[in-house]
Amino acid sequence: MPSLLHHPLDPSSRLVRLMCAEYGVPLDMEEIKPWLREAELLEINPAATLPVLIGDSDTPIVGLLASIHTIEDLYTPSAVEGLIPAEPGQRAEMWRLIEWVIFKLNDEVTRYVLEEKIVKRDQRGATPDPAVLRVAKANLNEHMLYFNWLFATRAWLAGDTMTLADFALAAHLSTLDYLGDIDWGKAGETRDWYSRIKSRPAFRTLLNDRVVAMPPQRGYADLDF
Amino acid sequence: MPSLLHHPLDPSSRLVRLMCAEYGVPLDMEEIKPWLREAELLEINPAATLPVLIGDSDTPIVGLLASIHTIEDLYTPSAVEGLIPAEPGQRAEMWRLIEWVIFKLNDEVTRYVLEEKIVKRDQRGATPDPAVLRVAKANLNEHMLYFNWLFATRAWLAGDTMTLADFALAAHLSTLDYLGDIDWGKAGETRDWYSRIKSRPAFRTLLNDRVVAMPPQRGYADLDF
């Protein structure tokens, strides 16, 4: 069974977990706090990032892009429609939105929320900076407007079928949701989409996540949130 | 002929240009300053990022990941060995290092240098912040040590053959080199590698780049730098 070095609230780890769950690949999970830069992680990945997938070969698969491509190559079950569309235009639209989520949304929202609310818990005397969290929240509102606009004209993020781009967005939004940073009352079309993707069996693994001394917001695991 | 919305010093645009040149795909080039957020770009790409590849289909290919995958799918000539290795382990190592370059090196070095030295030229009264540039330079030194360490044991960034990871790194280092931010005297093994990749025909297009009122550092286009 492949094992995954991950952190429960790391969105890249969550994306890989969703992908594996959808493809029916069981994972041995090992929790890591990458910001502690422990030797165990640095030896495998000097970038000190997650996820790291340890498969059948001796060489670990390091990082999000390598993991996505390896899982797609090795583990897509032939019986299931894959998460990467065959039609070139749809595939390009999927990569555009994956890039949006893993670069832009991460850069403007998720990384700040995680730094302030999670990483700082391990730094003696550090407390979340409300000014940073305010900027992240304002940025998130702009992103939600764009996602609402997309979901007003399409069933899934990159078009009419569910793709890896949906899992990328779900990975980030579920982390922000755990931490209570999403106002679902104002989330419009994105709420309907999230409700659909949250009900998928692949999502169950994420809904059981708990971070020590930081329980999720009340509706986190609720399918009727 | 496909056309490319690009900026001469944008590393993601440079990566796509190198890839197309290597595969023998001619490009119509249209220069854009993405930080001005002009309507022409925003209509195509609300993220206001480059590159945007406009191919035969009506729909533009937006962003680095979508462009890479589209070029690989549509334009790899059958006569040439592709830039993405067939062997799964080598391919995972290539993606690991592409991610290193486009996330980590960009995030810790290139984006700051571009912001301070290029973007600020278009902001009335703004000048480069020496403190930011000092941090970027210190970060670059750490990255160069890692690249030197890799190149001490392998001919190319991801292994024994040249891959897209080499082009990713060359795209970033060539931008930094244009701006005079690389001390080649201290660059060790990375200098030897850069000398090899700079001599490739695919590189010529980059060496002719000029930004208005900001000529490249003296050795930029020199193959014997």
UniProtKB/TrEMBL annotation, chains A, B:
- GO BP, sorted A to Z: glutathione metabolic process
Q: In what residue span(s) does the GST C-terminal domain sit?
A: 87-217
Keyword Cytoplasm in annotation:
no
What InterPro entries does the record tag this protein with?
Glutathione-S-Trfase_C-like, Glutathione-S-Trfase_C_sf, Glutathione_S-Trfase_N, GST_C, Thioredoxin-like_sf
Q: List keywords of the entry alphabetically.
A: Transferase
Report the CDD domains cross-referenced here. GST_C_family, GST_N_family
One Pfam family from the UniProt entry? GST_N_2
Q: Which PROSITE patterns match?
A: GST_CTER (PS50405), GST_NTER (PS50404)
- Where the record annotates domain GST N-terminal, the positions are 1-79
Q: Name one GO molecular function term.
A: glutathione transferase activity
The subunit structure is: Homodimer.
Put simply, this protein is called: Glutathione S-transferase
Q: Which organism is it from?
A: Devosia limi DSM 17137
Upper taxonomic classification of the species?
Bacteria, Pseudomonadati, Pseudomonadota, Alphaproteobacteria, Hyphomicrobiales
